[in-house]
Amino acid sequence: MEARISERVVERFVVFHCKGDACVGVISAPQDVADFGIVVIVGGPQYRIGSHRQFALLARALAETGVPCLRFDYRGMGDSEGERRGFEDISADIAAAIDALCRETGCSRVVLWGLCDGASAALIHATRDARIAGVAAINPWAHTQHQEATVRLRHYYLHRFVERAFWVKWFSGTFDIRRSVRGLLATIRKAFATTHGERVGFLDRMQQSWKRFTGPVLIVLSGNDLTAREFESWISSDGSRRLLLSSGTTQTCRMASADHTFSSRTECDHLSQVTAEWMKSAVLGAYNAAK
Length: 291
Hints:
- The chain is α/β, with parallel strands linked by helices.
- It folds into two domains: 2-144 and 200-290, Alpha/Beta hydrolase fold, catalytic domain (Rossmann fold), CATH 3.40.50.1820; 145-192, no CATH class.
- The chain has helices spanning 54-64, 91-105, 117-125, 145-160, 164-172, 177-192, 201-212, 226-236, 239-245, 265-290, and strands spanning 2-4, 9-18, 21-30, 36-41, 69-72, 109-115, 132-138, 217-224, 250-259.
- It has a nine-stranded mixed sheet, with helices on both faces.
- Helix 4 (145-160) packs across helix 6.
- The chain starts with a strand and ends with a helix.
């Protein structure tokens, strides 16, 4: 089934298989054949449309610029078959999605575009397929209990003390002091604890894959998002990661007023524009330079 979205863009369902399970996706594509396409990797327990229709709007906007996009449900999510799995275990799904996009549109190179843990999955998978020409990682997931606590102390508790709502509750007698103190003390203990015993192997894999990947990388960080702050904390805590972020192949874009899922239509459109411009300047630029 195919639907015309605009004079230039058509959209159609696609079903492809991953280890025997049927996966469902939607391709937004221009009428012309393109060399490059984008595979959108969703983040968290959601499906291919995204919060506030984020992924649908992104794919259609990029297709208008001539770039075909596939957004899909990996196994166990949305309309796809199979058992539900976490972002660390979707490499086979990503590989199958790349195959499907190339087969359906004729493109030979792809960019992985991911949000949150989908961004982390994209970075982990970046070196596993020679067809991957770039990675756009939006508010990547770099979570540990230690990092979460550190970020909450710095960006949540300190800000609370200067908020009017906090003092209104305080002076009205509706502020639960005991509960808040218990929460603060627990956060402090986690912040000063080590990460020993935490399951953070995905962070090592993400860092090593990012380091080995030779293509362009786009990192987009929202200003109104603790996940982005955790990623920044993870980067700043290690010199080799700081070098990765400042390398010539990595471009960082900070969107000060955006939240985690770019729920404002203005911010959503801005993100699409940033992605399209990066595709043109960095991804296509690197490809043409290598010819």
